[in-house]
Design a protein that fits this description.
This protein is mostly beta strands and about 625 residues long. It is about 5% helix and about 40% strand.
């Protein structure tokens, strides 16, 4: 996750083209380099934890426990904005691995605290790489998981889920319909061409004024912004033309006389609720339909206002063109008292005009989904508390178990109780849980507020490499044959006893990607105690760049809160020999030179010397082949 290798695949160009370098590791020569960063991650208290001990120490681990020492900054507050009077901070200097800070602020029961950590910025331009976390302080309570504050809930603001508005009220999410009013001369086109359409479907059956207005006129559709439903016309309401039992979500009016137009004026002025969506369009069944649009503005004298004036107050811009050009297909969409949405005017009666817009609405149901609860060594119970619950509300909760392989199983379905036991859930099979709170209100479309949500459980153990307590790395430059000596402390951060743990030690040669691995079993490791991990290895392989890696619980047999802080990496180099071994030859005690004459039966002594004190030359078997060549060319 935070420790990774980069593999460079290199092809070399030869005279005959790209030389074939396909080997056991794939295409090309593979060069592996370790990339080590200095990120610090909060580990204790865990995110959304319930803390019951007032002696609170914040703990974070660097993503590589053996990274070069550096300075790290902690901050804590009661808001994720880190700007309240409670705000406190501290720079912890010259540290690596497990980093700790004990704030001196008073902790108030029931209060959620946010804290974060980052490597200290080396310049104002570089900034910080913050990693945030939160917990609630609940003395005399069991440990577990808690969400009870705005910024904690905001983690659940995913598409389709309940969200929290700027007033920190829980709201159902918005949906959208595409409204397309296709206008034109109805008789010029086949059925389905002209109409009021939802989401690319056929014309809505409840809005078909062309069916009952043969002489034309205007039609209004008024839509509730919460429910997205058109207001029902019970048959001639407000002086409109009855559309019968089918077209009940529209209001059709004639416009040939001032008295007919007065009904439209009254409807627009008195019967359109504030903030409702209004769809106003002309209805023309045939080219010969005369809507008397040139007379509409004359109503201003008689009634003090007119259809054009009322529409212009809402933002209409094309209505004056309609008045001068005569009866034409025209559409105007607006939000009452908030202004225009869009508008369209068709001058070619052989064509159609499409006016599209989205209609937002509030959904009637939604969920709060909370993931990654745990891991637990024992599940206890679930509790949550709601505010502003109405009689028309439907609420229940689903609980899902997360087993190995990230497979999800349903464990509790549509449970309506706000407090129930989880003791029947096997933590070995389901170390983590997911929860889904379901809310529905088809009447008011208002969601209840969640005061708090809690799952109580016993956490699993958590171990971390802790170089602050012990770290030794003999040298970062070693001669061939020299022994690498390393040790580092392993600390149990939890209140759980760890019986024993396997530790994997690796040495990776970055020159040829070869590895040396060794496994050791250590322990026990009592709660909040540490043990020392020791390792030694004689370096006899190829010289060059190497990486030493130590990883406790590498096989993850022991369930832990975190695994990333079990790994430490240290780069080092094995140096090449400065010179080759030097061989001296003595005949009868005399060092000979080229061309010297010796006796026929000499006492011959070979002396091999090397500057590397760590590679012993005292083993005769290390000399694999020696011989003398006689003047006759025979070998002795």
């Amino acid at each position: 996750m935070f420790f990774f290798s980069v593999f460079f695949v290199v092809f070399f160009q030869a005279e005959d083209g790209i030389r074939d370098l396909v080997r056991s590791r794939g295409l090309g020569d593979v060069y592996k380099r370790q990339i080590l960063d200095n990120t610090a991650i909060p580990v204790e208290p865990c995110n959304f934890a319930i803390v019951n001990n007032p002696e609170i120490t914040l703990k974070a681990s660097t993503s590589n426990a053996l990274i070069k020492r550096g300075n790290y900054i902690f901050q804590i507050d009661t808001t994720l904005l880190f700007n309240s009077p409670v705000f406190a901070k501290q720079v912890v200097q010259n540290v690596q691995g497990l980093i700790e800070w004990k704030p001196t602020i008073p902790f108030t029961p029931g209060t959620v605290y946010y804290w974060r950590v980052s490597a200290d910025s080396i310049s104002p331009d570089a900034g910080y790489t913050w990693k945030p976390s939160s917990f609630v302080f609940l003395p005399d309570n069991d440990l577990g998981f808690n969400q009870s504050h705005y910024f904690q809930y905001s983690d659940n603001n995913k598409f389709g889920h309940i969200f929290i508005d700027n007033n920190r009220k829980f709201r159902f999410p918005f949906g959208e319909y595409l409204i397309d009013i296709v206008n034109g001369v109805y008789s010029n086109f086949s059925f389905g061409t002209i109409g009021f359409k939802f989401n690319f479907e056929n014309p809505a059956a409840s809005i078909r004024p062309w069916n009952f207005m043969p002489n034309g006129g205007v039609c209004l559709v008024v839509v509730n912004p919460v429910t997205s439903s058109g207001i029902i016309n019970n048959g001639g309401d407000f002086g409109s033309i009855s559309g019968g039992s089918s077209s009940r979500r529209c209001y059709g009016f004639l416009t040939s006389t001032s008295s007919e137009r007065k009904k439209v004026i009254d409807f627009l002025q008195n019967n359109v609720p504030k903030d409702h969506y209004v769809y106003f369009f002309t209805v023309m069944n045939t080219i010969s339909n005369d809507l008397k649009v040139e007379e509409w503005q004359n109503d201003l004298v008689e009634f003090g206002t007119s259809i054009p004036e009322l529409l212009k107050e809402q933002g209409a811009l094309l209505i004056d063109s309609l008045l001068t050009k005569g009866s034409l297909p025209y559409t105007f969409k607006y939000t009452n008292n908030k202004g225009a949405i869009n508008e369209g005017l068709l001058e070619d009666l052989t064509q159609i005009i499409s006016t599209k817009s989205f209609l937002p609405y509030i959904r009637i149901e939604a969920t709060i989904k909370i993931e990654n609860i745990g891991p637990a060594s024992r599940w206890d119970r679930l509790e949550y508390k709601l505010r502003n619950v109405e009689d028309v509300d439907t609420t229940y909760i689903n609980v899902y178990g997360v087993r190995e392989g990230n497979f999800i199983d349903t464990l509790v379905l549509k449970e309506k109780s706000t407090s129930f036991s989880l003791e029947h859930i096997d933590p070995k099979l389901y170390p983590n849980l997911q929860v889904e709170l379901y809310f529905k209100d088809a009447v008011n479309r208002s969601a209840p507020d969640v005061e708090n949500f809690r799952i109580f459980f016993d956490p699993v153990a958590d171990m971390a490499l802790d170089p602050k307590k012990n770290y030794r790395f003999l040298a970062t430059k070693l001669n061939r044959g020299e022994t690498l000596v390393a040790s580092v402390a392993l600390t149990n951060l939890s209140n759980e006893n760890v019986d024993s743990v396997f530790v994997k030690y690796s040495i990776i040669n970055l020159e040829d990607n070869s590895e040396i691995n060794e496994f050791k079993k250590v322990g026990p490791l009592p709660p909040n105690q540490n043990i020392i991990l020791d390792f030694q290895q004689k370096m006899l392989g190829k010289p060059g760049k190497h990486v030493f890696v130590v990883e406790d619980n590498h096989d993850k047999i022991i369930a832990e809160k975190h695994y990333f802080n079990n790994i430490g990496k240290q780069e080092f180099e094995v140096l090449k020999d400065k010179s080759n071994p030097f061989l001296d030859v003595y005949f009868d005690g005399q060092k000979i030179l080229d061309g010297d004459i010796v006796s026929t039966k000499p006492n011959i002594k070979l002396m091999l010397k090397d500057e590397n004190a760590f590679l012993s030359l005292d083993n005769p078997e290390s000399v694999s082949y020696t011989h003398l060549t006689l003047p006759t060319s025979d070998l002795v």
